[in-house]
Amino acid sequence: MNNLVILPLVLPVMAGMIMVILRNHIRLHRFLSLLTTTLVGIVSLVLMRQIQAAGIQTLQLGGWEAPFGISFVADMVAILLVLVTAIVTFCCVSYAFSSIGSQRERHYFYPLSQFLIAGVNGSFLTGDIFNLFVCFEVMLVASYVLITLGGTKLQLKESIPYILINMISSFLFLIALAFLYRLTGTLNLAHLSVRVAEIGQDGLMTAVAFLFLIVFSLKAGLFLFFWLPGSYSAPPTAIAALFAALLTKVGIYAIMRLFSLVFYHEPEVTHLLIGVLAAVTMLLGAMGAVAFGDIKSILTYNVVVGVGFILAGFASFTETGLRGSIYYLAHDMIVKALLFLLGGTILHLTGTGKLKEMSGLIRLHPQLGWMFFVAALSISGIPPLSGFLGKIFVTEGTFRAGYFWLGGIGLLTSLMVLYSMLKLFMNVFWGYTNFTEETEKGTTKGLLLPIALLTACTIALGLGAEGLHGVVDLAAAGLLDPQTYIEAVLQERYP
């Protein structure tokens, strides 16, 4: 057992509780937020080394052995996502120092962001599906407050469908848990894998799998994403960037974990459905990104496209496709946070999100313009940036699985994403400027550093792909071989 496994959950909770008690010490809140995310990142790197050397790391709380106790499991997929979460959170919180406003800082922005991250990390690391529900709820309750923090009319309006949809999905989650427990007698993920293999994934078990797919699709924005564009465009920039980078990814991870570890016996049914939903999601998201003429809408619909693309690789259920999904998932978390911070900075400077009302911003802010250009090329999959390798592997994986239609839709929507990003760049930054330093609504002071850090990350993820090759391969192999996960958690005990 390894006690480090629970630290990415415990550290943000402890930091958040200290901040709540010391409400008015905003500088302490800022320091603790950065310190906590840095420590989580360091713990993630240590665990990553241990997984490479000794295999999957586990922790059984209270000394109760699995499947009877509460299990936390750090395999390469989970710990890679925890590491990327720490990087994204560090940059978004740093951005908030100069943008979130003193009122929101006094009303618990920093502790709420820590509780949100605790729920995200707990969802990645839990080895029990009921605790996955608990961690989801911790994350969602924090997000309910964050989406309304500040109380603007738009925030309150968009928070209503967001909260209602997530309450419905949580209710369906509980129903699915009840059915699964009735059929298998366990909720431990490793033990569930054993039980489902023994019982067989018949019609009823497949129906339960579909119910879980509906639940996680609502949370990930897979096909059922009608709530997402409004909800992600309403909060302040730092919060919207956290949401775009992290919240849908937890739903994606849950689908990947459950349908590679538990419900993997009928891929011609379950994984084909995931592929169909991914294709429709990519097409609808890309059409939205191309059709709209304001920054927030274009960026939020690109979040939808990313969800579909990641799960297209998973639907192929080939080693190459899974490798692409994992690599693209890490890339997408970084580049979506980057784009939302860039978009928020543009809105801060110009006071408008409509493309027709701005141009030539690169003349006044060349650093901002070229960082946006790098982000646009990265999300579009242009080499040598981070989006390219993931798109190549996902496309190859779908072709190897015989899903040529899915790979073709992925390539088509990639072109549509490139068009939407170039449309943004040409309208916002190119041409004659409509603004002067005197007419700008804000300043970039304190905002460019976190954006530059994320830009450096997406460049490094592309140029340094060879260094991540072993990590991503190990993560993909773990998803394809559930026996490795089972043996690490149950240690040959199959009661």
From TrEMBL:
<feature type="transmembrane region" description="Helical">
    <location>
        <begin position="402"/>
        <end position="425"/>
    </location>
</feature>
<dbReference type="InterPro" id="IPR001750">
    <property type="entry name" value="ND/Mrp_TM"/>
</dbReference>
<feature type="transmembrane region" description="Helical">
    <location>
        <begin position="162"/>
        <end position="183"/>
    </location>
</feature>
<feature type="transmembrane region" description="Helical">
    <location>
        <begin position="329"/>
        <end position="349"/>
    </location>
</feature>
<feature type="transmembrane region" description="Helical">
    <location>
        <begin position="130"/>
        <end position="150"/>
    </location>
</feature>
<dbReference type="GO" id="GO:0042773">
    <property type="term" value="P:ATP synthesis coupled electron transport"/>
</dbReference>
<dbReference type="GO" id="GO:0008137">
    <property type="term" value="F:NADH dehydrogenase (ubiquinone) activity"/>
</dbReference>
<feature type="transmembrane region" description="Helical">
    <location>
        <begin position="370"/>
        <end position="390"/>
    </location>
</feature>
<feature type="transmembrane region" description="Helical">
    <location>
        <begin position="270"/>
        <end position="292"/>
    </location>
</feature>
<dbReference type="GO" id="GO:0005886">
    <property type="term" value="C:plasma membrane"/>
</dbReference>
<keyword id="KW-1133">Transmembrane helix</keyword>
<feature type="transmembrane region" description="Helical">
    <location>
        <begin position="68"/>
        <end position="96"/>
    </location>
</feature>
<protein>
    <submittedName>
        <fullName>Na(+)/H(+) antiporter subunit D</fullName>
    </submittedName>
</protein>
<keyword id="KW-0812">Transmembrane</keyword>
<feature type="transmembrane region" description="Helical">
    <location>
        <begin position="6"/>
        <end position="24"/>
    </location>
</feature>
<keyword id="KW-0472">Membrane</keyword>
<dbReference type="Pfam" id="PF00361">
    <property type="entry name" value="Proton_antipo_M"/>
</dbReference>
<feature type="domain" description="NADH:quinone oxidoreductase/Mrp antiporter transmembrane">
    <location>
        <begin position="128"/>
        <end position="416"/>
    </location>
</feature>
<keyword id="KW-1003">Cell membrane</keyword>
<dbReference type="InterPro" id="IPR050586">
    <property type="entry name" value="CPA3_Na-H_Antiporter_D"/>
</dbReference>
<feature type="transmembrane region" description="Helical">
    <location>
        <begin position="31"/>
        <end position="48"/>
    </location>
</feature>
<feature type="transmembrane region" description="Helical">
    <location>
        <begin position="203"/>
        <end position="228"/>
    </location>
</feature>
<feature type="transmembrane region" description="Helical">
    <location>
        <begin position="108"/>
        <end position="124"/>
    </location>
</feature>
<feature type="transmembrane region" description="Helical">
    <location>
        <begin position="240"/>
        <end position="264"/>
    </location>
</feature>
<dbReference type="InterPro" id="IPR003918">
    <property type="entry name" value="NADH_UbQ_OxRdtase"/>
</dbReference>
<feature type="transmembrane region" description="Helical">
    <location>
        <begin position="299"/>
        <end position="317"/>
    </location>
</feature>
<feature type="transmembrane region" description="Helical">
    <location>
        <begin position="446"/>
        <end position="465"/>
    </location>
</feature>
